[in-house]
Amino acid sequence: MASLLTGLYPYQHKVRHNGRPGLAPELELASELALQQDYRTSFFSGGAPVFRRSGLNQGFELFEDNLVPTFSSLFRPFKKNADAFMQWLHQDVGPDSFFSVFYVPDLIFTTTVTMTDLGETRNLSFESQLDELDESLYELFQSLKAANRWDNTTVVLVGLNGHTTSERYKELSPLNLHGENTQVALFIKPSQKRKRDLAIHWKVDQNVSLVDVGRTLFELLGESIIDNDAASFPALSLQGALKSPNVTWAEDRPLLIESGWAFWRKAGPIRSAGISHHVLYINDESPLLYNTLVDRFEVNPLPLLQESILPTTQKLQNLLSKNQFPAFPPIQSEWTKKLSLPFSRWMRPDQEADLLRDLKRLLAQQPQSLDLLNWTAQIALNQRDWETLKNLGTKNKISVWQYVAEKNLNSKTAKVTDSCFPLLTVATIETEQLKNCTDPLFLELVDWLRAEARGFSRDAQRKRFERSFRNYMLDQQIQRANIAAGLIWDTSRENIFAPSRTEFALSLPEYARVRAQAYKAIQTDEY
């Protein structure tokens, strides 16, 4: 997104992931240029609110990223944003020119139920989300035509990354620089002064980049970004290709591809690749070289000294070295293991038993992984698999896990070495005991369960706890979706996907009724 709005590569604008720091304020966005040209500007995001913190809200009069997630939906479907855009267009813009951007994450959420225009429920798949998006795009285009805005509006439809349908060995989707993840759809409908009976269309078969699309936006707004003669990876406007299919740029123009995900996640350096014409060079410690003209799916890497493409290979190597892109080392096996499960396995309730089985298998392979341990325990608690929790607690010396599991198994219970759990049963709660427990959610549970002893209103404390518990469980749902999506969101560091002592307390047999009440409350909109 930053490259689209700046016309610059990530090594130039420095925004390589969804965390901080964001865009330097001295860099101009296309939206800022549009605002200077008296365009009305707006941005509609359906996904996690990450773009504002990256500084990409500059120049947008309306920056609509205020997403309120729910248990049923963690994103805002494109149709809702399209409706909000049309309302803005009618009420605020009127006849003025406008520059608008939509961020559409819908295709990630393959477990969200969608309906056809006939009211039929689609199956849960990537294809069903694509059908829904296609239908919503058609409705938006029809609305623009009805508002007499279609012909005089330039429309750009572009993907930010591809769709990995098959798993490459030891490749993670956020790091994948192969064609299935880097070759994206790009459609541009230019504005036209007069209406045509039939549309004229053509395609361009040469490589272009998101940076080129960004340069095109600047040129359409009347300003050109010109690279100096020494640019390693020259970018250019595609405006000429909107007027004629005969493009003028060189077929062997080098393009840069990179992923900053490993650097952000402290899993390795920036991974980079270069492509020139039909030669793809992935800059790993054990480099990968492909001739995509004869190996479209990039399954047969070539020797680095392949004579027929050696000059191009050396050119890409020299350019990557010149710009100080390090060779990417093999990523630690823990990463490839723990992020190997598909989105649907994590997010479909009917697959949670299979998810637990898979996590137990992965934990056996990576017994030192704290993440896999926590994730396995959380899913085991969800599934009320007390034997698994007992074994995990015993092996890892986590007394609360072992204690609660043994209570539910009606077996002899281990002693709990925890500063908070005794607050549930001690005759008198002392101030020092409250200070020793640093878990706010658990303390709210204690305030509810022991309200009379503490001189509180039981009903008020119940509502307070239910509100906090609902927010906590929603945070856990977001954490779970983030794992499913490949840890691409900058979620709260305070919350990890692991079972809390509050969930364990509510799982004790003596609190079955309390548990039922608390979990029922999180499904309502009362809070």
At a glance:
This protein is α/β, with parallel strands linked by helices. It is built from 21 helices and 9 strands. It has helices at residues 2-6, 10-13, 30-36, 78-93, 126-146, 179-182, 210-220, 261-264, 310-322, 333-338, 343-347, 352-365, 370-382, 386-396, 399-408, 431-436, 440-449, 451-454, 458-484, 501-506, 512-521, and strands at 40-45, 62-64, 98-103, 155-158, 186-189, 254-259, 271-276, 279-282, 288-291.
Features:
527 residues; alpha/beta; Alkaline Phosphatase, subunit A; 2 domains; four-stranded antiparallel beta sheet; three-stranded parallel beta sheet; 9 strands; globular
**CATH architecture classification of the largest domain:** 3-Layer(aba) Sandwich
Average pLDDT score? 92
- Uncertain runs are none
Give the domain tally.
2
Tell me roughly what share of residues is in helical segments: 25-40%
